[in-house]
Specification:
The chain is mainly alpha-helical. Helices cover about 75% and strands about 0% of the residues. It has one domain: ABC transporter involved in vitamin B12 uptake, BtuC (Orthogonal Bundle), CATH 1.10.3470.
């Protein structure tokens, strides 16, 4: 006889879904071990951490809500300029507090623009998000008295993190700072997608009409996750501005949003780690191939995308199947123990 779906059963199922897999723990142990294992690669590792957080923000709306965006760089740029302006004019001297303020500023922009994104089809959303990024780029360009225009916002001086750790020229403290923020933001995102709210987003992505028919407020949830994702992108932009002590119009460029889609195509969408893995692969290939073949490195990344499409992601990642099965068995035993 089947067990009825009581609240306790649902709660235990959600708790089991949120349990950490052994591979997840290993992933983050390896990530933090890189602080000591690669002391000469802090700058490229910082770029990977920033791109991973940026990709995580897009995965929240693309992988879990089905919202396609080609203008996600708008929120990245807003967060970057907010952090740079706060530091330059000494409005908020502490980087962590400035990071929070910058993320909230990007979230506010995301909330306002989310109502435009809700209208129309996927093609309409693509064009609207792209238009929003162009608008913010031109606003930053025309208001040079505030943003520095085409020359960028210069003369930014960053204060020590928490008043203790200065941004050193080798990038050690900057990388530890970015990696820590990435981990904290990942924990929050993981909690969101494994909650009833996150499951309702998957329902909306699969069939919005059916989700609406069973009582899910579709528009509210789409606005909420779009606002959250904008805040994530703003935090990523603020981290870049703080580590580089500079902000420029390039943060709003279409190329930045397009690269983000490439990262998610490489790593996969809808499971959070796709953006992190894709950021590592993309940045590693960019760094290595741009030295090996400076003029043709995009060709090799394009070739990788073709291979992924032709062969299929399932076949490429089939070598991890035994480890995933092991993690699933461990999670199932933990679930049975909790439910006993």
């Amino acid at each position: 006889m089947k067990t009825p779906l009581t609240n306790s059963v649902v709660s235990r199922a959600l708790a089991a879904r949120a349990h950490w897999h052994p591979l997840e723990i290993l992933f983050w142990v390896a990530a933090f071990s890189s602080i000591w294992l690669f002391p000469g690669k802090y700058l490229i590792l910082t770029e990977i951490a920033l791109l991973a957080l940026f990709a995580l923000s897009l995965d929240l709306i693309l992988g879990y809500a089905g919202i396609v965006s080609l203008g996600h760089a708008a929120f990245f740029g807003v967060g970057a300029y907010a952090a740079a302006l706060l530091a330059k004019h000494e409005l908020v001297n502490e980087p962590v507090l400035a990071l929070i303020v910058s993320g909230l500023a990007a979230s506010a922009v995301g909330f306002v623009t989310s109502f435009l994104v809700l209208r129309g089809t996927d093609l309409t959303r693509i064009m609207v998000t792209l238009g929003v990024a162009f608008v913010f780029r031109e606003l930053a360009n025309q208001n040079g008295w505030l943003t520095g225009g085409a020359d960028g916002l210069q003369g930014v001086t960053m204060q020590p993190i928490l008043g203790l750790f200065r941004f050193d020229m080798f990038g050690h403290n900057g990388y530890v700072y970015c990696l820590t923020v990435l981990f904290v933001m990942f924990l929050l995102a993981r909690r969101i997608v494994n909650s009833p709210f996150g499951l309702s987003l998957l329902s909306i992505k699969n069939n919005p009409l059916r989700a609406s028919a069973i009582g899910i407020n579709v528009n509210f949830r789409l606005v909420a996750i779009y606002t959250i994702a904008a805040g994530y992108a703003g935090v990523a932009g603020a981290l870049l501005a703080q580590t580089q002590a500079f902000a420029s119009l390039a943060y709003f460029d279409f190329d930045r949003s397009a690269d983000l889609l490439l990262v998610l195509i490489i790593g996969g969408t809808g499971y959070l780690y796709g953006g992190l893995i894709g950021a590592f692969v993309f940045k590693f290939m960019h760094d290595y191939l741009s030295v090996l073949t400076p003029q043709y490195w995009p060709f090799w990344i394009g070739l990788l995308l073709v291979v992924i499409v032709m062969i299929g992601r399932e076949r490429i990642t089939s070598w991890t199947l035994p480890f995933r099965k092991l993690g699933g068995r461990l999670d199932w035993r933990r679930y049975r123990k909790d439910g006993a």
